[in-house]
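Exercise 7b. Backbone tokens:
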């Protein structure tokens, strides 16, 4: 068989492969997108796991994938191993455009504004290190931003003399207070506003749309939105937010394979943005400079299975998912809020708040609470330390059942009442 024929055979196999995977997926996960209520989520719970006896309430770190995604990944991995260079780059990668189209629909941007990569860190660092800045230019960020992003900006300050203006506000500050803090940090030298859409410490959703409007009104200030926690957890639209750069991990709330992420760059900003890595192509066009083989060899099977995660997500829909995640937070909080000394550091009154919340108990060291929940009750939550407060972060996911949250609240009550 000639090389050409082998290639055609694989492309055909790949197309069939993709179609079969898609059909199976729909058949297995097809559930009417429902509203809220425990019973209507039973099949979603069953689509994940099995998890054994550990209760995972730390999904804000990274999410498990439903079986359909694991199956799509396993099939693609096996297929890639039959003839890696052809099956990955010619066959599996033929689906990348379709994946970007689906992601673009979810994220409210154009497919050609999306670069696929490994995680939010890579996407955000591409923007942080890729925007042209001179010594003395100012960047406004917040002490609630993710640690590696603040550290990336510190590197730029050390290397290029960029001046960082770090704003701070209370965990329960109002939108107006937050906007006021950013506004007062902006000067004539401000060139970038870096914002986190959903703060990873507390789950607080920042008013990024208003902050981007503020940046536009103040002049040519470029805006970066860290959507690692918000994408696929709460409704989000790149165009509506009005930022220049937005990056997200796909292995968090979308439940795509580990090590998948995306960077969205507004069309008008693409040409001026420097790539983070040396591209393979001499003159990559558009966002190709931070995508595909211009990032070196990447995991085509993992990227391929992003589509299965989007398809699964679409059987539920972002609105219904958000409503359910919010309902789960409300559920455990209602069962724990009368525990002596219980304090919530997340504004549940904000209708955007969803699965991620932070609490503390007066008189209890949150780090010890995290350890005791794990060692005595097999419940995994996450201790979080911020300059303004420390607490325990709780983050259920759509597969979490109310009985799980009863177990968590009882465990917490037991620790506190037996002290
Ligand atoms: C707000 C925020 N930004 C960025 C990241 C980094 O994400 P990744 O590990 O996918 O790069 C995280 C991870 O938890 C996060 O919560």
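Sequence design result:
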């Amino acid at each position: 068989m000639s090389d050409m024929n082998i290639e055609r055979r694989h492309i055909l196999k790949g197309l069939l492969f993709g179609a079969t995977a898609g059909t199976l997926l729909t058949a297995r996960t097809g559930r009417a997108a429902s509203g809220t209520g425990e019973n209507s989520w039973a099949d979603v719970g069953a689509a994940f796991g099995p998890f054994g006896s550990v209760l995972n309430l730390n999904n804000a770190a990274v999410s498990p994938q439903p079986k359909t995604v694991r199956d799509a990944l396993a099939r693609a991995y096996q297929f890639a191993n039959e003839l890696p260079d052809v099956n990955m780059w010619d066959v599996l990668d033929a689906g990348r455009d379709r994946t970007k189209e689906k992601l673009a629909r979810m994220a409210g941007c154009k497919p050609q504004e999306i670069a696929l990569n490994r995680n939010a860190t890579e996407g955000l660092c591409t923007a942080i290190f890729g925007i042209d800045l001179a010594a003395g230019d100012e960047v406004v960020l917040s002490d609630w931003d993710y640690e590696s992003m603040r550290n990336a900006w510190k590197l730029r300050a050390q290397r290029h003399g960029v001046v960082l203006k770090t704003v701070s506000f209370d965990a329960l500050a109002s939108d107006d207070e937050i906007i006021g803090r950013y506004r007062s940090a902006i000067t004539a030298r401000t060139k970038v506003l870096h914002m986190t859409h959903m703060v990873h410490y507390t789950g607080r959703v920042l008013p990024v749309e208003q902050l981007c409007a503020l940046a536009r009104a103040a002049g040519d200030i470029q805006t970066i939105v860290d959507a690692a926690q918000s994408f696929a957890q709460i409704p989000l639209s790149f165009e509506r937010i009005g930022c220049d750069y937005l990056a997200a991990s796909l292995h968090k709330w979308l439940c795509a394979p580990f090590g998948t992420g995306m960077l969205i760059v507004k069309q008008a900003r693409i040409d001026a943005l420097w790539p983070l890595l040396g591209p393979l192509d001499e003159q990559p066009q558009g966002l190709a400079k931070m995508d595909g083989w211009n990032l070196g060899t990447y995991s085509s099977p993992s990227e391929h299975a992003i589509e299965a995660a989007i398809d699964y997500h679409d059987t539920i829909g972002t609105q219904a998912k958000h409503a359910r995640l919010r309902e789960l937070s409300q559920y455990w909080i209602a069962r724990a809020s009368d525990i002596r000394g219980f304090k919530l550091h997340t504004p549940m009154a904000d209708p955007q708040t969803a699965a991620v919340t932070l609490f503390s108990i007066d008189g209890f060291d949150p780090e010890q609470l995290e350890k005791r929940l794990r060692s005595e009750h097999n419940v995994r939550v996450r201790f979080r330390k911020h300059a303004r407060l420390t607490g325990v972060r709780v983050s259920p996911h759509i597969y979490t059942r109310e009985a799980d949250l009863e177990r968590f609240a009882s465990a917490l009550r037991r620790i506190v009442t037996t002290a």
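Instructor comment: The longest strand covers residues 190-196. The two ends are 75 Å apart (CA to CA).
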